[in-house]
Amino acid sequence: MSDTALCSDYSAITDLRSGDPGAVARAWENRTTRPTVRGDGRLMIVAADHPARGALSVGSRPTAMNSRTDLLDRLRAALAEPGVDGVLATADILDDLLLLGALEDKVVFSSFNRGGLAGSSFELDDRMTGATAASTAAAKMNGGKMLCRIDLDDPGTVTTLASCAQAVDALAAHGLIAMLEPFMSSRVDGKVRNDLSPDAVIKSVHISQGLGATSAYTWMKLPVVPEMDRVMDATTMPTLLLGGDPTDPDEAFANWEKALALPSVRGLIVGRTLLYPSDDDVSSAVATAVSLVR
């Protein structure tokens, strides 16, 4: 356990939350922070904001992320691996990791819009229901991330675009990174599907990177798709590659390695592929990803 941990186990977190909730804010204030970019300028970030959108499945396991303590175990194992720079998550998960001492000297990104619940009729009206620029700045985090799915046939998209633009401006006002994760999306048999063709990803990049009054603090979070050289030619924004839902890990690692060589790519921001590998060896999966980034 870290010397900075306020809680030794998960039951202690519940005790602290009920008996001294103000300790959370004090812990954020006292945490050892770090700049987003240092050393070789590359980043290896672990993502864990899926549960707050009701997305609990991993591959063929529909309830893989049901257990919060199991997820925290996996996150702590990942964050303990040398070369892992930090984490992206919602406030509930970040607060738990903070109290367990797992966020010292780590890059931390908050997750903003979780209103587009997976499978809902309003999924593409993805309003800001998570962190805010003010809360992200108060906790001395490095920035915030927004999912920006664009369906030209769904009126809810314009609410999402407007919310993301406002968040870009608010984060920039605090000098914090606004990380946009764009997709061209549509409903197929009632379910939202992201178009992962190169031209669709390129269009999503152009739409999303124009959001807000300034792009000074804008970063992109993009999927690895065919013809990534064409995709990355669409932007000068620093970009982290996302992992998505795991299929073939060896294929994913090979695709990441190739895309990481492109000039605008600065690293990986991966969740389920590393946290829930088929053999459940989180440390090994994370170490492999780190070796690609470094």
- Number of helix segments? 11
CATH architecture: Alpha-Beta Barrel
Q: So, the CATH homologous superfamily?
A: Aldolase class I
Strand count, sense and barrel status of the largest sheet are: 8 strands, parallel, barrel
Q: Name the structural class.
A: alpha/beta
Query: What fold name goes in the CATH topology slot?
Result: TIM Barrel
Structural domains: how many = 1
Question: Shape, please?
Answer: globular
Order of helices and strands: HHEHEHEHEHEEHEHEHEHH
Poorly predicted regions are none
> Approximately how much beta-strand content do the residues carry?
15-25%
Q: Name the helicity range.
A: 25-40%
CATH top-level class: Alpha Beta
Mean pLDDT: 95
Radius of gyration of CA atoms, rounded to a whole number:
18 Å
Protein name: Cgl0159-like domain-containing protein
Domain Cgl0159-like: 41-290
Pfam families: Cgl0159
Organism: Mycolicibacterium vanbaalenii (Mycobacterium vanbaalenii)
Describe the structure in your own words.
By secondary structure, the chain is an alpha/beta fold. It has a single domain (44-293), classed as Aldolase class I (TIM Barrel), CATH 3.20.20.70. It is 37% helix and 19% strand. The chain has 11 helices and 9 strands. It has helices spanning 10-19, 22-30, 68-79, 91-99, 133-138, 156-173, 198-209, 228-232, 249-259, 272-275, 282-293, and strands at residues 43-48, 86-89, 107-111, 143-150, 177-188, 191-194, 218-223, 239-242, 265-270. The protein has an 8-stranded parallel beta barrel, surrounded by 5 helices. Helix 5 links the parallel strand 3 and strand 4 (143-150). The longest helix has 18 residues, at 156-173. It is globular. The mean pLDDT is 95. Residues 41-290 form the Cgl0159-like domain.
